[in-house]
Design a protein that fits this description.
Elements lengths: L8 E12 L8 E10 L11 H16 L5 E12 L2 E11 L9 E9 L7 E8 L6 H9 L6
Antiparallel strand pairs: 1-2, 2-6, 3-4, 4-5, 5-6
């Protein structure tokens, strides 16, 4: 995934790890853990929208930040709670091939959390399969998410 402003998320904060310095598509290929608020492109009017909005966000992120034509397979889509707030969790596995790119699969996790604000919060993690060592850190971050009222 490339770095820069992310249209789909607002107020983004997080960490990234450079996985490949010069990706064939230009720039760095990174693994990332980001939190933010759902951007304006997806309709949201309350907790009942969580599953649909989480899927739409996943689709937009996959279309915008990964290899064109990547095959997306949903591994798990499930309602969850984050710090007592309703949320929806989606784990997607991407497979793709790009000449010169060191990875052919990516684990994408999107969690949408209804915090009571007008826009839900987002947790987006992206872990290339050649850096599975990052999965433990991602799991720890996900388990430690809290909602600041």
């Amino acid at each position: 995934a490339g770095r820069g402003e992310i249209y789909e998320l607002a107020n983004t904060a997080g960490q990234f790890v450079v996985v490949q310095e010069n990706a064939p598509s230009g720039g760095q290929w990174i693994g990332n853990l980001l939190v933010g608020d759902l951007g304006p492109s997806i309709t949201y009017s309350g907790a009942a929208d969580l599953p649909n909005a989480a899927q739409l966000l996943t689709n937009e992120l996959v279309a915008s930040y990964y290899v064109e034509g990547a095959q997306a397979t949903t591994i798990l889509t499930t309602p969850v709670e984050v710090d007592g707030h309703p949320a929806h969790f989606i784990h997607t596995e991407l497979s793709f091939e790009q000449a010169g790119l060191n990875t052919t699969n990516e684990k994408v996790v999107v969690v949408l959390v209804d915090t009571g604000a007008s826009r839900p919060s987002v947790f987006w993690a992206s872990i290339p399969n050649n850096r599975v060592d990052l999965n433990d850190g991602m799991d720890q971050v996900y388990r430690s998410l809290v909602v600041n009222d």
